[in-house]
Amino acid sequence: MNHLLTVADAVATHARLHPHKIGARDSRRALTFAQWHDRATRLANGLRAQGLDKGDRVALLAYNCVEWMELYTALARAGLVAVPINFRLTAPEIAYIASHSEARAFIVQDELVERVAPIRAELAAIDAGGWIHFGAADGAQTPAGWQSYEALIAAASDLEPAVQVLPGDMSALMYTSGTTGKPKGAMRSHEGSTLIALATALEMRFTRDDTALLVMPMCHANSLYFSHTFTHLGATCVIDDRRSFDPEALLATLAREKVTFTSLVPTHYIMMLALPPAVKAQYDVSAVEKLMISSAPARRDTKLAILDFFRNGKLHELYGSTEAGWVTLLRPEEQLERLGTVGREWAGSGAIRLLDADGQEVPDGEVGELFSRTAYVFDGYWKNPEKTAEAFRGEWCSVGDMARRDADGYITLVDRKSNMIISGGENVYPSEVESILGAHPAIQDVAVIGVPHDKWGEAVEAVAVLHAGQPLDERELLDWCRSRMAGFKRPQAIRFVADADMPRTATGKILHRVLRDRLISLATQATQSTQTTQTAQTTEVARAPQTARVEA
Q1: Locations of Low complexity compositional bias (predicted)?
Q2: Percentage helix, strand, coil, to 5, in the chain?
């Protein structure tokens, strides 16, 4: 029989081998492998008793919590498909994913039930028994129209579900962050999930003695892939279940749980390292052996500060995607000598090709679209054959990223293909301009956007966040750019916003599409205001200030 261990099989194995070991925990409760296996098995049977069949999709909406570990395992055991939804989404965005995926059940954390209430009528595929909630305070009544997650588990059988799960069956339908349009559902198989877990364990040299702290959202591929890795090994996963990032609390957790690995974005590290020395000195993080940084470029000073603080930690930087999985890795010994690159291919990732518009490989040093061939690549986009066809050239997969490769095989990401600006016939790669702007000592974060322009087709504009206490105006920064980049790359305008107003995905990536929409809206409003003023008072011309705040 064609069979490959799923994450549910891995939990069952470790429930037999070391039943009393903690497999997963958050701040509220811990699960031994035996408890985890029992609850996941009962939940699988409880969901099947609601009329769900193999292959049915189940939408999941929750903050980070240990229940995610139960849910991914139970759905795998039942042959059901997890549809994790970002808890930061609005009700209409949630409705789109649940509807598009044709979810037949919806499991929601109690705090988010009100978010879902307005859209229930739109989700006709979910019958009365498919609305399940968890996390209510002790003694609280189950909301009307919902059934209790705990009651469902308690009433269900602990026997193995009568369903055969095969390697090629879909395990998860992961909706992309939608930085450039409507989110697409990436179909991930059990085989792909297991292979990426094994490849991660091999490349990163993880063992069953590791303890991982999962900070990134559990609805995101980063935490999904790393959680499966540690589950297959029989290691312990600690879920950071705070509602917002707290750098000191993170240090406290690293010290208390003797965490050996965590994966963070640059902003997390910057906030943590900015804590006063006396605060950082309170926490012993000597157990940390491996660190991952991803999702955005990290500066040299940030990496040096990470290595200085985590004296026993080795820093890794990865590039990958929900669709392709891990693609490249910048290994610890390469962090400073290959700064700015994302390394070379991940062990087991196959190979990388950089192709031009005609599908021909570009020479080293030139920009091409990055295609990878991985053993754990996704199976296409749900109900979207056109986008699936665009993502593949034969067995080679691309998510539209542009990159260049040097003679030693190191990859430098240039930009998302879809974010590329064409101004006056010249290609402008936002990440290149962002890198130059970001080198200014007053700049904390920056995004470069192409906005429509009557003459040039698109004009380059930037939206920047300043470090606290660092005054800087638009003219100073534009003058600073003048000697550092070609004229066609220089922003025509720079707008300053508060960090909280910079739109981001759950993993900290700036949403360029949202910023572009805001800038276009501001420009339209300014044009309309000017026209109105000119009509009423022809002697004056109203001009909107270029440093106007981009409202959230």
Answers
A1: 526-539
A2: 35, 25, 40
CA distance linking residue 267 with residue 261, whole number of Å: 17
- Per DSSP, what are the bridge partners of residue 392? 397
Tally the C-alpha atoms within 13 A of residue 505's C-alpha that lie toward its C-beta. 24
Domains of the chain (ranges; CATH) run 420-536 (3.30.300.30)
Which residues are CB-neighbours of 413 under 8 A, at least 6 positions away?
A: 297, 319, 342, 370, 401, 402, 403, 431
DSSP letters spanning 251-281: HHHHHHTT--EEEE-HHHHHHHHTS-HHHHT
Burial of 348 (0-12, 13-18, 19+ CB in 10 A): middle
Q: Label residue 498 by pLDDT band (50, 70, 90).
A: very high
Backbone angles phi, psi at 346, to 5 degrees: -70, 145
**CA 228 from centre of chain:** 16
For the full predicted model, state whether its pTM sits above 0.70.
yes
Strands (E), 3-134: 22-25, 30-32, 57-61, 81-85, 105-109, 131-134
Rounded CA-CA distance 270/529 in Å is 41
CA angle 178/132/26 to nearest 5° reads 75
* 300-332 confidence digits (pLDDT tens): 888 999 999 999 999 999 999 999 999 999 999
Strand order in the sheet with 81-85: 147-148, 131-134, 105-109, 57-61, 81-85, 170-175, 185-189
The CA-CA-CA angle for residues 470, 475, 480, to 5°, reads 75
| Distance from C-alpha of 533 to C-alpha of 545, rounded to nearest angstrom | 15
Contact assessment for residue 40 and residue 9, using Cβ atoms and an 8 Å cutoff: no
Q: φ and ψ at 283, to 5 degrees? A: -115, 125
Block residue for tokens 């979207």: 384
